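User: Modeling request: complex.
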Amino acid sequence: MDLSVRIGKGVLKNPVGVASGTFGYGQEFAQVMDLDKLGAIYTKAISMEPRRGNPTPRIVETPSGMLNSIGLANVGVEKFVTDKIPFLAGLDTATVVNVVGTTMDDYCNVIKRLDDIDTVWGYEINLSCPNVEAGGIQFGTDAAMIEEITTRMRGVTEKPLMVKLSPNVTDIAEMARGAERGGADAVTCINTLVGMVIDTARQQTVIARKTGGLSGPAIRPIGVRMTHEVSRAISIPVVGIGGITNTDDALQYLLAGAKAVQVGTWNFVEPAASQDIAAGIADYMARHGIARIDDFAALLDRRKDG
Amino acid sequence: MDLSVRIGKGVLKNPVGVASGTFGYGQEFAQVMDLDKLGAIYTKAISMEPRRGNPTPRIVETPSGMLNSIGLANVGVEKFVTDKIPFLAGLDTATVVNVVGTTMDDYCNVIKRLDDIDTVWGYEINLSCPNVEAGGIQFGTDAAMIEEITTRMRGVTEKPLMVKLSPNVTDIAEMARGAERGGADAVTCINTLVGMVIDTARQQTVIARKTGGLSGPAIRPIGVRMTHEVSRAISIPVVGIGGITNTDDALQYLLAGAKAVQVGTWNFVEPAASQDIAAGIADYMARHGIARIDDFAALLDRRKDG
Amino acid sequence: MQDQTVRVTANRAISPDFLEVEFEWRRDFGLPAPGQFFELRITETTAPLLRRPYAFSGYDPDRQVAAMVYQVRGQSTQMLARREPGQTVRVLGPLGNAFGLDGRPEKVVAVAGGVGLGPILFAARDIAAAGSAVRVVAGFRTRDLIPDRGLWHGLETAVCTDDGSEGFAGNVVDHLRSLPAADLDGARLLACGPMPMLAATHRFAQERGLVCEVSVEEMMACGLGVCVGCVVERADGEMVRVCTDGPIFDSGVLAWT
Amino acid sequence: MQDQTVRVTANRAISPDFLEVEFEWRRDFGLPAPGQFFELRITETTAPLLRRPYAFSGYDPDRQVAAMVYQVRGQSTQMLARREPGQTVRVLGPLGNAFGLDGRPEKVVAVAGGVGLGPILFAARDIAAAGSAVRVVAGFRTRDLIPDRGLWHGLETAVCTDDGSEGFAGNVVDHLRSLPAADLDGARLLACGPMPMLAATHRFAQERGLVCEVSVEEMMACGLGVCVGCVVERADGEMVRVCTDGPIFDSGVLAWT
Ligand SMILES: Cc1cc2nc3c(=O)[nH]c(=O)nc-3n(C[C@H](O)[C@H](O)[C@H](O)COP(=O)(O)OP(=O)(O)OC[C@H]3O[C@@H](n4cnc5c(N)ncnc54)[C@H](O)[C@@H]3O)c2cc1C
Ligand SMILES: Cc1cc2nc3c(=O)[nH]c(=O)nc-3n(C[C@H](O)[C@H](O)[C@H](O)COP(=O)(O)OP(=O)(O)OC[C@H]3O[C@@H](n4cnc5c(N)ncnc54)[C@H](O)[C@@H]3O)c2cc1C
Ligand SMILES: Cc1cc2nc3c(=O)[nH]c(=O)nc-3n(C[C@H](O)[C@H](O)[C@H](O)COP(=O)(O)O)c2cc1C
Ligand SMILES: Cc1cc2nc3c(=O)[nH]c(=O)nc-3n(C[C@H](O)[C@H](O)[C@H](O)COP(=O)(O)O)c2cc1C
Ligand code: FES
Ligand code: FES
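Assistant: Request completed. Predicted assembly structure:
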């Protein structure tokens, strides 16, 4: 049985990763789990310059979910290289750097700064940022813009390049096709949905910046559906994410068409949950005679019992 | 204090209604609550011809939500008139008929059939159906199509006409503007989000038709955010819906900019919940010195404490 | 039909697979009849969100206590299993129709698979009390899963095990087939259990020309007839709701595919 | 730091407003220090989803039992209040730093508002045991909300009520102001309670030139330093995380707006 996953020129040893923004830079979790059991760590978003992020409150709980408006607070690429890479480099798991910017150059510059570092396995491009050059519309809601930025990034790296898709669109498959045309090696599906919670006693939005990104088990059915849709629209791999808490949830994504998965918000609830999911998937594959991850794609709705 | 809400040429005695598809035609709930406490009953979707609906399973629970794929099963407009209207006509609450079709004519014909009936207060147009004349794309995901169908329906009725918006779009405010341009008296915000759940033991989607509409508390933050966005984009009233379970949830929608609300999925959980929400809103208005529903709009984020 | 917050009075394992919960059910909520169900909600959370339907397994009008036999399957039954006497649950019912669609039969064979045992024993006791002849046939996977026999005290009961480790070796329909024809002559069959068992019992009834009443399970959202989620198809092509048109159906009217 | 499923050993109301829960905490989980917190999860559901942070109110190394004083606010504390001895919860900790940022002070005035009482009493007992002078000042809205005085047994404690129905009439800072200056000379202030109380205590400390350690509350998602949700601003403009850089801060380093 083979748990490995090929993405572009890279190989992940197993399909289970931990999502950007929910795992810091790995260090904090070393106390409660074995990081080497992960297929990949997707770092907190990295931008050229350090960012303070948004005012607080940045977080509010919702039914089976949460909103966050961290505002991509991060240490900036230089400090990431000096302070965070050394720890990540010592792990037996792929470091995928989540990249953000407000112009296309920004994105490319982060990649250029990191591309020579051997232990940077690849990139995941976070497009839920306003494009300041295009009047602030989000990079991730326009297929042509996705294609263009992907093409530009493809020009500066040969490492695995994943484009993270926003679910706040009418047709996510079209966005995925844009990424594929631009030369992405994979798409990540899905980022958070925009939501709002109002404190009725204070007559204010709870989140200081009014809206935040909805994540957690509440959005899992949306993530699974979009993964199903996207994986049928493109031929590059899909990395499924949204509301995964255990092996069964991860298997839903694999059966929907994903080749790999990420655990996000659930890391806050059960910090060690991700380490067991790869073993759980292996166990399921053994029981169902599935030899490799690629074989999941054909299983859904064969209706063998119908 | 005035709880009434004006929509087009009509007035609802209070802002609390029960959502289409979650309350049948009212009769079943008479045993557990006082229907006259409601501002409106939005009926199950009515089409020209009766519809059997989709195969089962039609329902699956999700974290703090559920998927449904009822397929707009309904008795058809004729049977609705003969079997359902008489009961609804006896109530001291507005009957809003939720209308569906697969062509624009379909929609208009349902309205024409009902328009002479005094006790039909108005219509709510459900656009999450494939338009067979436009190659099956959903009526609700294209602003021009929304404008056109609204214009056509406006031509056949002077009664209050509400257009129910789909949240499965990049820019819901644009859809709302289409409805406003077409002459709608209000928009309802939001219908369900498309989701999928996979039974990993059977390697099948749980819902027979694969995807279903996600509703319930899980989607409340999305509904509140879209209500906030839409109410700032148009000048006709917004009816807020999605995950409402109690007075506080309803107040979130009113503070976000809605003039009325609907309780949907929660009717399945606590069938009598809706009857107390109007009283809860009145109580809140009294405590905060809010004279009428229209005054909610200005309250949010005045930051009086900042 | 009433929606109430009631106290659990007992909640205990009766086999490695089954638990039985008892809870207050005042007479004025409506007297539960065998085959009817209620919708139970574990409060304080929206996950699980929906109520779950369960069939009554008995009602004691003196103590005003109802009972239900259940199996831990998912989140809701897990939380129910942790409820201790004195704690509360919300219950809505009685819902649906009851066994004895066509009046109380003279002679009954009541067939149970899995947790179908609850309503089947309720029906059998009720029918026996009314003076009709009744025989219970209950199927289990293996001997260790058979609950305390006190449960069917006073009822003529045949136990079947799939693996033959106790009682009749085989499933409940195999057992029916093994009975002398006269035992079944003119009997009404009642059946509650998993769909394949209901289908097999229905086919057996057709072969023998017997009337068979089945208790059907379908995913339910409302339990009140409004969501139209719980439909099954009738032989005439109509879609009917399990929650309000059933859950008990004459097996002859359903479309068995 | 450990993540464990532990048994509740006691859980009872100690005032109309407060409850105290005790639960197993093995020595090898790490010894909780006053000011540190843990993240508690009510299992079996995703609503509530996130763990909640609570400060330790005591630790008994012999019985290996930790305690926490809490107030029912929302879903999670409601569910916690229903947990009975023998039932389990999940706990992750000890997390964060502790009072005594700068070594153990000689003379301490420990100020509590609301459920801030838990960690303040823990700190006061600890400091008294180490031989330093300590005085507790605890504020309540009204006399009826004052918990059983046994809670601060052996500690010099001044009770304040906002409505003057018992003890000092006024809030905790009013009380500090009313003390003879000598009582506070060279004292370290420790404070735990709502933000406005912390701000007032900080201002008072500034006026008097005292060092003041505050326990800060902010919404937390992870409690582990990774989500960056719980930040507060320092006077130098840096954003720091309450969960890992705090929750105890020298009030002088924070930006009080
Ligand atoms: C009329 C009727 C009577 C029933 N009587 C009993 C009974 O007496 N004892 C008993 O143990 N069980 C009974 N059931 C089944 C019971 O409803 C499920 O066991 C229960 O819903 C499981 O809930 P859960 O959260 O523990 O499991 P879940 O994780 O929700 O589901 C586990 C499985 O239970 C079934 N199920 C879940 N939700 C529903 C639903 N809303 N409606 C129907 N099926 C569902 C599905 O097959 C699902 O795969 C009855 C069902 C019906 C329709
Ligand atoms: C370091 C620290 C120590 C604390 N110690 C205690 C203690 O000893 N005793 C005690 O009763 N409470 C303590 N709290 C507050 C405690 O976390 C909240 O009372 C608890 O989260 C309420 O949960 P709920 O689900 O009942 O209420 P909710 O409905 O979730 O929230 C009610 C209110 O509690 C606050 N709150 C909710 N979630 C969080 C969160 N994740 N982080 C911070 N605040 C939140 C918010 O102001 C919210 O409006 C502490 C908080 C922090 C940050
Ligand atoms: C607190 C928080 C911070 C996040 N930060 C980032 C980020 O920096 N970059 C990014 O691409 N996604 C970020 N995300 C989105 C997650 O990576 C993930 O796409 C989303 O949360 C859905 O997965 P989940 O439901 O498993 O959490 C963040 C999510 C959370 C909850
Ligand atoms: C079982 C079910 C059936 C529904 N049927 C309809 C319908 O016929 N027409 C319609 O416009 N919306 C229908 N809806 C959508 C609801 O009216 C509502 O927009 C949605 O459920 C979100 O609200 P909620 O979260 O309060 O349920 C249905 C929803 C459910 C759960
Ligand atoms: S469960 Fe809703 S109609 Fe039967
Ligand atoms: S709570 Fe996540 S960083 Fe502090």
